[in-house]
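Two proteins, back to back. First:
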Amino acid sequence: MLALARGERLNGSAGINMRCLTLLSALLLVFPVAAQPPRATPGNRLAYLDDLDPYYPHAKFPKLTTPQWVGEPEVEAVVILAIDDMRESKKYEAFLRPILDRLKKIDGRAPVSIMTCKADPKDSRLQTWLKEGLSLEVHTVDHPCPYFKLGFAKAKDTYDRGVDMLHAIPNNKPVAFRMPCCDSINTPSPRYWAEIFNEVTNSSRSGERNYLSLDSSVFTVFTSGDPELPKNLVLEDGRERFKKYLPADRQFVNWIENYPYPYLIGKYCWQFPCMTPSDWQAQHLHKPNNPLTVRDWKAALDSTVIKKGVFNMVFHPHGWIKAEQVIDLIDHAVARHGKKVKFLTFKESHERLQKSLFRGESWRACAESVLLLDVNNDGYLDVVDLRSRAAKTYLWDPDLSLWRVCPGPDGLALKLLLGGSIRFGIVQKNGNASLAFQSATLGMGRAGKVTQDVYHFDGQKWATDKAYHRTFSEADWKKHPAFHRLLDVDGDGICELLDAGGKVYKASPKGWLPLPFTCPLAPGSRFVDLDGDGKLDLVHSSESGWGVHRLIDMNTGWKKIRAGKPSDPGAIPMIRRNGTNNGCFVHSGNLWWANEDTVLLKNHVDRRRFGELLKK
């Protein structure tokens, strides 16, 4: 029975604490699949749950609007003012004081986040700021630009020292990080999110094992391709108003389009995308302190309110923008939108996310068992909470601005603790979510079995589909467990099952039906549509070799186009290296690599065009 919970904020009991990694998650660290949702198609709309990809959202990706998490009925959009590069507080006090005083006139608070490189924990000015409502966040100690120019170990060290330093400030608990130079060059990399941000700091130095929960290093840009936005806000003399700020002279690809909402990268990182332009991007285009910058900021803020998103502003006290220009933007927000807009810090945003979506518990404590996905295919993210035996699914109702509660899927909490794994996909023609749950039954001195069951969401509840029940050997499961997933490989809107041994199954009323071909799985595999025919091709590259395979049809399967060794001339750079992500991602029709090796290349990235990959 679908229950209506007006204004419910998911504040019930915590249920079972899911702090343990599942068996599958642990194996992913050893044998990772390169991360990128294969295609933005209806059948693969849940593929992001199995990947670590910084750039998967797009205009049609399900929203996590501000009313879903902010906790105030009148508020429809959030503004975060986050200033970068602080090394000494005196300069920042002088620049920020007029802005802080203006913010206090709104509700007595001064919500600004300072992205900090260096700070003395004994500096009394920091305590004054904290009492006024500011938050002190992390921007690395050394500000390397590009980030990996000193190598991976030193890149991690400057991050760790920054996190530990900000934790050492009395009364301060940092939650957010911003990558140095993320608005000007291609400095972010999947390696950073996979192996630095999602880890804890190095306890051998400080005795602490600290971590952050929010990142703000990817930019979002509004374009005329979003039908929700009036053309006068996103166009200027018939041309794109905001894309002009992306540094084209630097082949800049650190951006997503028309998605001003928080989203998850991997399991532990909340990405709060920055708004285009930053003040650096603006002065790079049309010189410092230009009134056109403020004009376009106002248009971006108005667009954010329409989208019910977050306007995350990047600015500096380096002469690129004036304090009075920031105040002009604040005045515009108050005069035009009133109580619809709420100014928050990163810390306050983090607290409201946890309270509204995760019952107040730390995100890291429940990331394995609380999942965000669009369950009923209505364009809004929902919450599937598996922390108790009687699980609950919370569906967002955008018309009534409340969460609707429905039961299930039940009975998975303990199995998750015991090493079970879950995969979401689209198996129903109505587009509602389905899940495949695998749990191992260990044999007494003999080979065990792995059981898989499929649950469908029918609009009211989750129900098991007995036709899809299957059992296979533990040995087969151990071959390539990270590849076991649901993917729509042929683009028909329904997912196929790719099992651990490379077998491919098609969904049918009778359950999974085996197809007459196998998937050429290999370390460092990436599923992506290289030729635009709607089907998923396969690229792989690691120390063991590389290859490109094109999906012909559902009778023939994948055909090898190219293959070779890492030492071959023209070899594809490694997608997986030394058992880890090598900084590969998909963006704008290319495979890109950003890591400690590519920093010496032009624009600090390596790339291969899709068309180039298909050439023999």
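And the second protein:
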Amino acid sequence: MRRPVVRKLVVPAVCAAVVSVGAAAPPAAPHGASDDRAPKVPVAVGYGGAVSSVDPDASAVGIEILRKGGNAVDAAVATAAALGVTEPYSAGIGGGGYFVHYDARSRTVHTLDGRETAPLTADSGLFLENGAPIPFAEAVSSGLAVGTPGTPATWQRALDAWGSRKLGTVLEPAERLARDGFTVDETFRAQTAANETRFRHFPDTAELFLPGGELPAVGSVLKNPDLARTYAELRRKGVDALYRGDIGRDIVNTVNKPPVDPGSGWNARPGDLSARDLAAYRAKFQPPTKTSYRGLDVYSIAPSSSGGTTVGQALNILERTDLSRASDVRYLHRLIEASRIAFADRGRWVGDPAFEDVPTKELLSQRFADSRECLIKDEAVLTSPLAPGDPRDPRPCARGGTAAPTTYEGESTTHLTTADRWGNVVAYTLTIEQTGGSGITVPGRGFLLNNELTDFSFAPANPAVHDPNLPGPGKRPRSSISPTIVLDRHDRPVVALGSPGGATIVTTVLQTLTGFLDRGLPLVDAIAAPRASQRNTERTELEPGLYDSALRQRLEAVGHAFRENPEIGATTGVQRLPGGQWLAAAEKVRRGGGSAMVVRPAR
């Protein structure tokens, strides 16, 4: 039997503590080039709806849509389109993502899988040459890495199913932002600098993001007239302009013949994307994953993403431990071990369910979690890579089998969370994979193409074990994206959140949820807490706040091994408060801090 919730989750003191720093969008429509750019504020409380993203211009766009009567879905699409302007290295119409929606009228959760797909000509040897995997760095900046974009199809399907505004209406603010420009900050310049070498391989990318041949200066205004025109075309013609029209033609030409600077010496291997691939693409409606935890229902995205199953399994493993009363050492130890186990099982069992027999229900069963939880000992640490269990035949504390090591996933993604005055909520994570995606800009179109197909295993992770994440025709690569909505016993929202960060998304969402639900942290502090990330590897990654603390030594004494990671994830979320209020929360520091806004701040 599951234990009841051990505390009241909505704490009135949270409201009182943060009202003074609450933020609303500026009254006028946002313009990145203006001197009154909306400030970055990590927490806001108020009425009429909320938006939380990494960027103030994008959050302000979502608030603009809410103020004009749009709902949470309209605001989410508008915010995502704006992030395609201001966060072009993390998101855009050249990528894909996963969309989780709570419908307040029916009190139900629905999801859209907008993951990119491999070309219909792809097979398991997509990234092999002469029988060996090509170097990862060479695969990333190539046409081979580019999957059929899913983001525009996701926007249209979400609006058709749950929105109240047309695509042309919600794209207008982002078009304006691309035309007028946004102010370059330290994070954008640093991300550009990290990609400068490969951006110079592609003249169209260099022209756009290295103006005048130089890194963009902090405080300068970066305009993207090509993207403004692309958005204008999507507004007029709809997403068929990409999946069956001129934008799609330009994507296909770019993928199959990457426009490389001849003097760079870069071998940008061509892809094999076709008009048929674009026309065949569908963003897929599918049931969410559902896990009961502390008397609450946790909903997320099902495979092709591993996020919902892996976070859900880890929560099920932790269900038997009272984390609210655990010491910091025991809390982190149990969190790390639950994540280690869940990643061991994900690597063996999760892939695109259109191609693989994924035991989603069994992975999320409490029976399976209990059979794996008994591996955890407070006085010892499990050894990675840990072998998977069999969710269809759970055997308590089984240690046999062959491990499937965790494959690499790029960490550049972005997450946004929205809520409206009617109580609808969206948690939406979108991506182009690496920071800067493939590095290839579609000439004349103003957006980068993804490198999502590098999320496939280039070769079997372990030849002795079936790998569910090998490429295939039209197959979606496995993801770790984990947009999550938590409901109470009456099917009303408690909190919604998500994060970027490749495979660290799973651990970030897991730690933020347990920090908020179990440890009693206000949402903004659960987001800000220093993070640990264990993904069935020998060493657990720690942010400096933990790596430099006495907790590290105490955990090492138990047997843990660590390495430092300067930054893990970048969460945004919203929390439902009493009386029709919403709390929006974002990062305080990571990625330069996030931007939380509400329509009308509480006074």
